[in-house]
Amino acid sequence: DVAYVNGRFMDLADATVPVEDRGLQFGDGVYEVIRTYRGRPFQVEAHLARLAQSAAAIGLALPEAARQFPALIDEGIRRAAYPDCKVYLQITRGVAPRDHAFPGRVAPTVIMTFRLMRPLDPALAANGVAVVMADDIRWGRCDIKSVNLLANVLARQRALEAGAFEALLVRGGRITEGAVSNVMVVRQGGLRTAPVGPEILAGVTRHLVLELARKEGLPIKEEAVTRDELRSADEVFLTGTTVEVLPVVTVDAMVIGSGCPGPISRLLQQRFQEVAL
Ligand code: PDD
């Protein structure tokens, strides 16, 4: 595996950051996950635009190297030489003696890893997955893709321990998103998903899938479904870089629709594959 740390490519096994990196001590950083299809990074401009937004939102000035990100990502992908690659890119506020307030004049730490992208088990995409609901205990700026992921970590772990694939996060009775994905619901012939705003990450895949749905003429309402509305959902699916379009067939013990991936999930899954592959 290949890594990039502050200007240099190296073997991932040799890549290190100092103990006083603020990413490690405060989660004071932002990140992106980008994958390739057929060796080419997918939606890279959208990911880098969101990275710039996340950095700006935490008052982190992008380093010089940011202008070369597209070229560096390409180079890492080439060096890793996997059929498909999962690119992790993280910028932290840098290395400084531990103090909550911003340090003066330190260079941000830029790291990237290039690992084999294992395709999702085709059986999951074909048959759908089970999910559970979990309280959304995250902070008030979930639109920032920050490396503070403890609430997401706990929710996903709980889901896996319950034999489920993902946790649907519930805030004030409404489904915001998943621990690692956005959530879409088909109900009364239309598509529903939480609006972009501080309660969700504006997923790159979410945006693309909404575009595809619009092209199909599906009515779309960007309004979070309530826990109650979920009961009468015809279809539920997840979107995200790592999950693509992934049908959900049970939520906790409740069966969604017929218990099989529904026609709109399948259609958008297919349209997504046509764009990605
Ligand atoms: N996560 N919501 C959350 C909380 C996420 O962490 C992610 C992605 C998404 C989907 O966003 P996108 O379509 O841009 O990948 C939604 C990445 C993959 C991760 O943390 O591994």
UniProtKB/TrEMBL annotation:
It comes from the Bacteria. It catalyses: D-alanine + 2-oxoglutarate = D-glutamate + pyruvate. Its cofactor is pyridoxal 5'-phosphate. GO terms for biological process: amino acid biosynthetic process; carboxylic acid biosynthetic process; D-amino acid metabolic process. Homodimer. Belongs to the class-IV pyridoxal-phosphate-dependent aminotransferase family. This is D-alanine aminotransferase.
